[in-house]
Amino acid sequence: MIPGQKPDPRFDLVNVTYRTVAEAAQIYADFSGAEVRVPRDLAALPLGSGIQSEGTMGGNVAYGYVTWSLDSHLPYEGVAVVKLGRGVVAFRAAEPPQQAKQRRQATETEIARYRDSLSEERFWQLIDDARQQGRADCLRTAEALKRSLARLSEDEVLGFELRFQLMMTASYRYDLWAVAYIANGGASDDGFTYFRAWLIGQGRERFESALKHPPAAVEGLTKPSPIMGFDCEQLLYPSMEVYQKKTGRLPPYGLVSYPTEPAGKPWQEEDLPKLYPELYRRFR
What span, in angstroms and rounded, lies between the C-alpha atoms of 34 and 228? Predict the structure, then answer.
């Protein structure tokens, strides 16, 4: 998509490319129909983080989520989207990245307090509520989860983040990585992370079944589309975004001791047909 070009409804996806704040603001205006205001001293600021492609910012985005993507992924290099109401949006300077990235390590006392503030049962209830509201749509599920978390206390939000990280750690296994690789037609480190976030978003029953029998992660499911697989990156961020909005700070790190490599036995791609033959035939 050339910056400033109107979207073409004949296509489901659009390649969004923008180099400056002004270009991002123009694309936001095209898709949202809102009035977008950009200060002159900010308009030429380059957007230098995010999806990189020959020095530009961009990526393939579904039409309906272009404005959501900009809302969710800014600030880039100290830029924020601020909704002023009445169909007016402002792109404003935000906290410099080096300051925004300052985080402190959680103490053992704090970790225990966060854990106690939100039970495992409550965690899964929040996931189930978001899943039902999202109706199998990753982005809508993440938005529903953010709305629920916004009603919790700061400790409860961090309790949710702690429990989410515990589930991510429990599913950091080579056998589940094999399932993700087969079902999604490949899975990088990031891809496996997004797969595990998606799996958590499927609810407690499927998640715990997958820990006992990895192919159960995708049992009875078909791949959403040739482009979209079993992944949901957006579920990684709601608790962090809500906490930052509540406090103006990034959440502390060190809530969970994360393993340096997946549990279990490593595999090679040529091992997959024998490792999970039925699953391999189904998705290949």
Answer: 29
pLDDT per position as a tens digit, 211-222 = 999 999 999 998
Same domain for 84 and 133?
Answer: no
Query: How far from each other are the two terminal CA atoms of the chain, in whole angstroms?
Result: 32
Which CATH number characterizes residue 19's domain?
3.55.50.30
Nearest to 100 by CA among 77, 73, 69: 77
91 pairs with which residues across the strands?
A: 81
Residues 118 and 57 in one domain: no
- Rg of the chain over all Cα atoms, to the nearest angstrom: 20
Cα angle, residue 195 at apex, residues 237 and 242 outer, rounded to 5°: 10
Q: Is the model's pTM score more than 0.70? A: no
Q: Give the C-alpha separation, 39 to 130, whole Å.
A: 37
Same structural domain for residues 151 and 274?
Answer: yes
Considering the domain architecture, whether residues 116 and 89 belong to the same structural domain is answered as: no
Mapped onto helix, strand or coil, the DSSP state of residue 189 is helix
Domain count, the chain: 2
Question: Are 103 and 121 spatial neighbours (Cβ–Cβ below 8 Å)?
Answer: no
Tell whether 76 and 120 lie within a shared domain.
no
**How confident is the model over 46-61, as pLDDT tens digits?**
765 443 333 445 555 5
Q: Which amino acid is at 72?
A: S
Of the three residues 68, 100, 132, the one that is the final residue of a domain is 100
* b/e code 143-160 from CB counts within 10 Å (16+ = b): bbbbebbeebeebbbbbb
Q: Which domain holds residue 263?
A: 108-283
Structure tokens at 273: 């047909």
Instruction: Name the residue with tokens 């715990």.
Output: 208
With the C-alpha atoms ordered 203, 208, 209, 211, is the resulting torsion angle positive or negative?
Answer: positive
Read off the pLDDT band of 88 (50, 70, 90). confident
